[in-house]
């Protein structure tokens, strides 16, 4: 991740104004790009930060909900973080997974069924170290959120 775009994104991603401004825009743009390209192109494509599309079942609506998320690979699964850009409440997708851990991930055009599990203790800490290397802003988001930020592993179903 040494290209100039990556360095700029890393710096900006840690700023509160960036999270506040882009939390309402970036997910929509990423969802559109991801769907239009079959999960192959996202805003951060080219920065070395992988993005997947996560499809959950809405806990209230029962409707499918799709959101783009950064991820880290781990033992055949994918680690994702419920930081919600540092907001005080959990993201809807995380609450959906807590209600029904069955989901689908789309990575580079391939959809795969997964089952979510919240990481805890040492397992969570090891995963946190990995994801904060991928996106250092998670440390800032967790501090601003003032809550426990869930870290999930999405394992093949």
TrEMBL record:
Q: Which InterPro entries match?
A: F420H2_quin_Rdtase, Split_barrel_FMN-bd
Database matches in Gene3D superfamilies: Electron Transport, Fmn-binding Protein, Chain A
Pfam families, per database record = F420H2_quin_red
Which reaction(s) does its UniProt entry say it catalyses?
oxidized coenzyme F420-(gamma-L-Glu)(n) + a quinol + H(+) = reduced coenzyme F420-(gamma-L-Glu)(n) + a quinone
Family of this protein: Belongs to the F420H(2)-dependent quinone reductase family.
Q: Which NCBIfam families does the record cross-reference, listed alphabetically?
A: hi_GC_TIGR00026
The name of this protein is Nitroreductase family deazaflavin-dependent oxidoreductase
What species is this protein from? Answer: Catenulispora subtropica
